[in-house]
Amino acid sequence: MMRGMNLFANTRHYLRALCLLLCLGASSLSYGLIVTGLYDQEIVVTGQGDAERIRAYREGLTAVILKITGEERWLSNSAVQRAIRDAQSYVQEVSYRTSSGTLEQRNFISVRFDRALVDDMLNTAGIPVWDQNRPAVMLWLSVQGADGRRELLGADSDHPIMDIVREFSRVRGIPLLFPLMDLEDRRNLPIDVAWSLNEEALRRASARYGADAILGGRVLESPGGELVGLWQFLFRDNVESFDSFESDLSAYAQNALNRVTQTISSHFGLLKLANPANVTLRVESIDSAKDYVDLLAYIQALAVVDSVSAALLDGSGIELDVSLIGNTFLFTEFIALGRDMEPLESFAQESRANTFYYRWVR
Known about the structure:
Elements: H1 2-18, E1 33-34, E2 40-45, H2 50-69, H3 78-85, E3 91-98, E4 107-113, H4 115-124, E5 133-134, E6 137-144, E7 150-153, H5 160-172, E8 176-177, H6 183-188, H7 191-196, H8 199-206, E9 213-221, E10 227-235, E11 238-246, H9 249-268, E12 278-284, H10 289-301, E13 305-314, E14 317-324, H11 328-338, E15 341-343, E16 355-360
Helix pairs in contact: 2-3, 5-9
């Protein structure tokens, strides 16, 4: 009976963890996640008149561009500013709704912008577009109150900074994962170790969540209201540490999250090349017709891929001719986000130019 209760408790923990993925359309707990609705925006309006609708279009397109570029600096680009002034030309679909809240009735307009038109505008301006397949970031955040007590915040924490972080994740379309803070988390990352931002401990504690990047942070709340802290961002093999001093909790959290978002979006941002690259992709362990269909669909869905076709079928291996709209580095990075394929190092000695070797592991 006790074993059954433990199984139920563990299942409940992981179901709760699944709900912590702050992006719509997330299909798994770990690794790169699909963020839907990047070209959709809902804006509060006071009515359905032309002036108010145009204002909402401009506000909505501004928010969409921020989501799909990841960097605020692009909003000052002259081509982007022209597009925002002419936002109605990028609108694909519009609908209205009225909230049913008991305190105050509010009206909203939901706007869907044309993805092709927006992407083309950005690429023409030389601005990379951040695709919907985005890396999941694990957040370990420790706080020390004015009374000197420290706490490592988890999914169920009610500290006000968590609402700020969740809202940033929603508005900017960056998947954030929060720890369950169960026995395993507390054993892997005791509060004193979390406060020290020990790199090895952060990586070890994050392994169970399968995140693509890790953000560790600590904030000291002084009796006078000042916020003093330190952040450590682990992404690929890079470790970036930076401190922060603020008097406003929202500014404190958003400054760090902005910095992280900028780093990730600049890494994965896609800019179409004038002369697309063509590569050969060799994939082993294609053992059924379903594997073949799934592989083609998977590769074609990568934002960096323009077209794909089968070139050679050899036993359980297949070679694909792939035309890219970006560089080969991004091709391998997008594959790594999905975790459906793993690189085959054993083929390194016999590798051919512009040929990549993988095993299908879905």
